[in-house]
Amino acid sequence: MNKEISHFLQERIDAGDFPSAVYLVAENGKIVYHDALGYAVVEPELIRAKPDTIYDIASLTKPLATGLIITRLVESGKLDPNEPIGNLLNEFYSSLNADITVNQLMMHTSGLPDWRPFYLLVDTPDDVPQSIANTLPLDQEPVKYSDLNFLTLGFIAERVTDLPFETITDAIFSALGLGDTYFNPEPGLRPRIAASEKGNEYEKNTCVELGYLTERSDSLAQTFLRDYQIWGEVHDGNAWFMGGVGGHAGLFSTAEDVFKIALQFLPNYTTLLKPETTELFHRNFTEGMNEGRSFAFQLASTEGSTAGTLMSPQSFGHNGFTGTSMWIDPAKDRIFVLLTNRIHAHPLPFVNINSVRRRFHDLAVAALDKNR
After folding, report:
1. 184, 143, 200: which is closest to 322 by C-alpha?
2. Can the peptide bond before residue 117 be classed as cis, meaning omega within 30 degrees of 0?
3. Which of 92, 176, 231, 300 could bridge to 315 as Cys pair (CB 3.0-4.6 Å)?
4. Residue 149 lies in a domain
5. What is the pTM of this model?
6. In a domain, 196, yes or no
């Protein structure tokens, strides 16, 4: 542990930003600081967070699972990143979105909107690809972060490999020797899992605001927008609708397992990719646009990123809605993992913890630099 980091995060817990936090800071492939604070579960009982507490890592699923899988397919020649998705998914063949490429999906430059409640729009999870294919692209900024991009990449991975997405990820995580990273954790693991929101009030309110809760969809909302304490189940409504598995969300993991996956994005440690392939994760493919984007990641050069002020500009990372984040500084060979459950035991609106993430990273970088 690091006293300054732990003290800061405990202050934010006491202030009500989130009930628990587990952090991990690594350098040169080795863990330097690792600590757990607060309560992973507040309702319906009190359970303290531990270093091996399992969190719903939400959108960290995008780079840690989908991004890694797509990169492996590209590296092996099984997938051309410039291939129009109309050639890869039948549902897109004659759609308005047929010419979107794999690269555009990976860099969030497809023009697809950020989110849609598919559980209110289609009858079964099998209908989701067609619904995305029929979704009108938006007139918007060049880079637009979108769940639909990585949902589509998950479907592409399944079609290219002819395997279910969960089977693909299980094989990768098994190869890395991970014991605590999976979709749909077993019920017996519940005491080790950090709890999420009580019900899906945030998504329900969003559906109301955007006009998706119609007379037809109200009964569907009662089915797919839960009203009980979400604990040990994926929080994201679309992932829940799709059986807990999505290319955009659904993974559960620990800080140490996230660190082990993060090593795959660095040339000195990767066992799943060629060292030179890892350049894709810190190369800016959207130079001059509103965000700096690489393969599956945002770059620290992006104005307002959560990297903080002390990381190298080519550092890359990702956040998760539930309160999670992971950043990698390839220039300094450093990895930063912060897992919280900010959506648990907190009334709406949830606290925006981006300033906490930035401060955590600055404290961690300063501590590592001081040790040199």
Report:
1. 200
2. no
3. 300
4. yes
5. 0.96
6. no
State the total domains in the chain.
1
Whether the pLDDT of residue 243 is over 80: the answer is: yes
Q: Which of 337-346 are b and which e, b meaning 16 or more Cβ less than 10 Å from the residue's Cβ? A: bbbbbbbbbb
pLDDT recorded at residue 216: 58
d(CA 141, CA 359) in angstroms, rounded, equals 28
CB contact at 8 A, 327 and 315: yes
pLDDT of 255 over the 70 cut: yes
Q: How far apart are CA 249 and CA 235, in angstroms?
A: 9
CATH number for the domain harbouring residue 109: 3.40.710.10
Which of 2, 94, 53 lies closest to 371 in space, CA to CA? 2
Q: Which amino acid belongs to residue 244?
A: G
Domain containing 100 equals 65-175
In this structure, what token pair is assigned to residue 351?
């606290």
Kindly write down the DSSP assignment for every residue of 85-111, as one continuous string.
GGGT-GGGTTSTTTT-BHHHHHTT-S-
| 52: pLDDT strictly greater than 70 | yes
Helix residue spans in 123-200 (DSSP H): 128-133, 147-161, 165-175
Average pLDDT estimate for 306-334? 97
Poorest-confidence range of 113-117, 210-214, 242-246, 355-359? 210-214
pLDDT recorded at residue 45:
96
pLDDT at 214 over 80: no
CA distance 135 to 127: 13
* Angle, CA of 73, 74 and 77, to the nearest 5°: 85
